[in-house]
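# nightly structure sweep
# worker-07 picked up a monomer target from the shared queue
# config: single-sequence mode, recycle default, output format = structure tokens
# input follows
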Amino acid sequence: MATEHDLIALADAYAALTGASETTISSRVFGDSKKLAAVRRGKDITLRRFNAAIGWFADNWPTDADWPLNIRRANGAASPSSLFPAESDA
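# output follows
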């Protein structure tokens, strides 16, 4: 199961790969340039926003870069089936 730490790790890896700033990534992912910084400081995030963020990274990950091995990749945009695949898909 993905955690807030995984979300921050994805944001950090995406920043390293693309050169985008945290505020730019936060704006793209959440439509809020300050949300990633708030999550980094321990602020809460709703499950819906969290799932949408993980889905955003899955959909927008650079095609020439490997996904971090320690984080399970969603199948696409944050639908429940993409984040929690059926047993046969696991």
